[in-house]
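cron nightly-structures :: item 1 of 1
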Amino acid sequence: MDVLSDVLRAIRLTGAIYFDIDASSPWVGASPSTDRIADAVMPGAEHVISFHAVMSGSCWAAIADGSVPPVKANAGDVIVFPGGAANVLSSSRGGRGEPNLAMYYSPIDQCLPFTVMRGGGGPQRTHFICGYLGCDARPFNPLLAALPPMLCARKPADGRSWVTDFLPLAMAEGRSNRPGGETILAKLSELMFVEVIRDHLETLPDDSGGWLSGLHDPQVGEALRLLHARPAEDWTLERLARRVGLSRSAFAARFAQYTGISPMQYLARWRLQLAGRLLEQPGISIAQAGAEVGYESEATFSRAFKRLVGMSPGLWRKGRMA
């Protein structure tokens, strides 16, 4: 079981490339937090992630509130803001500006991406594209909590293929106005995000904590694979500990060290994430959704769902359908 792929499927990752920007020095591009524009750029998405991919030139990227140090991004690098924080890209370090909220809307009479010229007309030019990724945050998305507020994935120095190498072809496809062009760009943005996550995972220190690091840990990674492969099975702490070759107490402590919760809490939350998806399918009853993920009775399932999500499965379903 590929746990990361399983999570990405369950949280319904969807992408869109919105802006194709050619900037000349000096320039500043300020982006609002995604909670302010989510309904406009990714209608229906519960959580929206923003990203910028530098195609040529270089720029400085920063979170608008200064909570993390700015980074310099070069051609081929991708900057992602998993929490959707307001951010600034600029030709020089420390640039500041105010976002123009009127730029963010779903076009009816034209195709994405919007082409934007920006800057003072100076000799230093930067070409970058900006987009968004929508996903579920509830009932349970272990990936979001495991990511830092800003990620900068560097283009490999060894010359091997990188996701931004394909973007010029995709952008040309989008400009041709051929049917399906926006879908190609959207899928490429999803692929870009997965590559950024994999790059981040591969560069994490061996002693780092968090859910992503747990995927690489021999015991915790194996336990996560078992839970994701067979979430409806009647797992117990003892069974999982035996399968990964640890004592019950050692396994529980190690699992919590990486995920922040116990193995049984993780299983319960992941079951409810899967059940939440099932509840959106026509013809699936509440009892069926609960049984599918391992709950023996509708009452037990409903209590667990309400305890984590804050509403009954029935109300959740009505809200999602709306």
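cron nightly-structures :: done
Residues 181-202 form the longest helix (22 residues).
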